[in-house]
Write a structure and sequence with these properties.
The protein is α+β, with helices and mostly antiparallel strands. The protein has a domain at 2-112.
């Protein structure tokens, strides 16, 4: 009996030393390395890091299970303990952090589950703000305009070019001065500025809200609410489009299709229509994002319905005036221009670049340009270029992401028909969900996450440098002002000679996709959590 028990102890000891640990260690190491790479080296081997991260975790679970059951040489109790330890660690990790959104590359943004949510921070901050009570002579005035106003998305002409001011280049000697910074409701709208006030859109709980603030103090003047909300998993919740201020009225388009005309002094609704319901079309994946265009007594928007791809409403009463085109909507804003001697409206929709007549909305010409066939994400504003010295044709530059690239098209009219000719096309600049600016025959934009300069005549790349994530940019004379996805604001020379970054500062925290706005020397910026106004140093030259 003693010999038998001794033999069993020896066998047990030999069995314990025979456990194959190295496959489990290799599986765990490979999984950790892959997950780290998915969060850092995006697009090195994937374009959907968050989805692939979930697949990696599932594959890890399966591989560990196979190892434990088949190859580990463990007894049943050991397998149960190892599996319980793994599940405990995963449960603790799940309970400790939450996914707080996604970057423009699709990576997870993690936050502690014990930290307050953006909505909670906003509500606490809002309760502590002083209320705005206008006195006689101090009512909100959106009628009196100045040359420094930016009343619409990327300016009245959608160009993203700021004129009439030169910024100082040395921000270390004279840094930007913060006038105010505060939490706001969610959304990806930018600001519109007229006079001493700025207007944006926010998601406040279950209400889609148009809000007017004092430009220099950030005090809330009025807020118009609609019982509506939009949410999409990668972009989160809230409205996407930027309001337009026109002759004292505010025109806003919510993510769910609510088009409002509001009294700019009070926020009172003058008229409202849901452009999706009226035109009998489903919403797009990322919501309505095209900011309203105000022209010739019309409000022009793009619901993307059959026969009503582009629609015009009367500015005064919201009555539908015309609809034209059949293409689904994308995420660019309609813009007016003059091409081949005729005024027209450009609409960069889900099927490509379409030009519509101002009088009845009929399609004058189009060119197919499909970005990401599954989602059809055309976002970048088209840029109308003046005719070159060696041709009489007007031209249009367009760009999109997902590997599509950019192109320049010549547009001419012959015998009452428009002719569109592709001058060049390449993949040197892929603007995913940003827009570009031009200067002296060169275009500047974010090719994915990297700033790039191209020659507009040939499409050749002049330089590529500076990683700013999926941010936005505007041009201020000979400088590019870039709102990086990280929340930093950066100055870069707008020169084709070389990439040269000259200044930067941390203006916001967290992911920032919203377009910046510069009204004179006042920089007004926001993301889906906070907004701020900075006074930038101005050059005396």
């Amino acid at each position: 009996m003693m010999d038998d028990s001794k033999t069993q102890r020896v066998v047990a000891q030999e069995g314990s030393t025979g456990i194959l640990w190295w496959p489990g260690v290799c599986i765990l190491s490979f999984t950790c390395c892959t997950l780290i790479l998915l969060q850092t080296a995006v697009f090195s081997f994937t374009s959907r890091p968050s989805v692939d991260a979930i697949y990696v975790v599932w594959a890890f679970q399966a591989a560990i299970f196979v190892w434990l059951l088949v190859f580990s040489r463990m007894n049943q109790s050991q397998r149960v303990r190892i599996l319980a330890a793994i599940l405990s660690i995963e449960t603790c990790a799940y309970l400790a952090v939450r996914v707080d959104g996604y970057t423009g590359d699709g990576r997870f943004i993690f936050s502690s589950r014990w930290s307050p949510s953006p909505d909670e921070r906003f509500e606490v901050a809002r309760r502590g703000r002083p209320s705005f009570t206008p006195t006689e002579g101090q009512e909100v005035d959106l009628n009196t305009t100045t040359l420094l106003d930016v009343p619409a998305f990327r300016g009245s002409d959608r160009s993203g070019i700021v004129r009439g001011i030169r910024l100082a280049r040395n921000w270390e000697r004279v840094p930007p001065r913060q006038l105010w910074r505060q939490p706001i409701g969610g959304g990806w709208s930018s600001f519109a500025v007229v006079g001493d006030h700025c207007v944006t859109q926010e998601q406040r709980g279950e209400y889609e809200t148009v809000v007017c603030y004092e430009l220099k103090t950030g005090r809330e003047c009025w807020a118009h609410r609609d019982l509506a909300s939009f949410y999409e998993v990668t972009g989160g919740g809230g409205p996407r489009a930027t309001p337009t201020i026109h002759y004292g009225r505010v025109y806003s388009l919510g993510a769910t299709g609510i088009l409002n005309c509001l009294d700019g002094s009070t926020g009172r609704r003058i008229w409202s229509v849901n452009i999706l319901e009226e035109n009998r079309v489903e919403n797009r994946l990322f919501g309505m994002a095209g900011s309203p265009l105000l022209i010739d007594g019309m409000v022009i928007v793009s619901p993307g319905a059959k026969g009503n791809s582009l629609v015009a409403y009367d500015q005064q009463n919201g009555r539908k005036l015309w609809g034209g085109g059949d293409a689904p909507a994308a995420y660019s804003a309609p813009q007016s221009c003059q091409l081949a001697g005729r005024r027209q409206i450009l609409n960069f929709n889900a099927e490509g670049l379409f030009a519509h007549a101002l009088d009845d909305g009929r399609v004058l010409w189009s060119t197919t340009w499909i970005s990401n066939p599954e989602e059809r994400n055309n976002v970048c504003q088209p840029v109308v270029l003046s005719a070159m010295a060696n041709t009489e044709a007007d031209r249009v530059f367009i760009s999109s992401g997902y590997g599509n690239g950019c192109a320049v098209f010549e547009v001419t009219e012959s015998h009452h028909r428009f002719v569109v000719h592709e001058q060049w096309r390449n993949r040197n600049l892929k603007a995913k969900f940003t827009s570009v600016v031009i200067r002296d025959g060169y275009v500047y934009g974010l090719d994915g996450r990297i700033l790039t300069c191209l020659d507009l005549q040939t499409g050749e790349r002049c330089w590529k440098g500076g990683r700013y994530g999926h941010g936005q940019l505007i041009r201020v004379e000979d400088l590019l002002l870039i709102q990086a996805e990280s929340g930093e604001v950066v100055l870069v020379e707008a020169s084709p000679v070389s990439f040269q970054e000259i200044a930067r500062f941390q203006a916001l925290d967290d992911r920032t996709w919203n377009h910046p706005l510069l009204a004179g020397s006042l920089l007004v910026i926001r993301n889906d959590r906070e907004a701020a106004c900075y006074k930038l140093p101005v050059s005396k030259q």
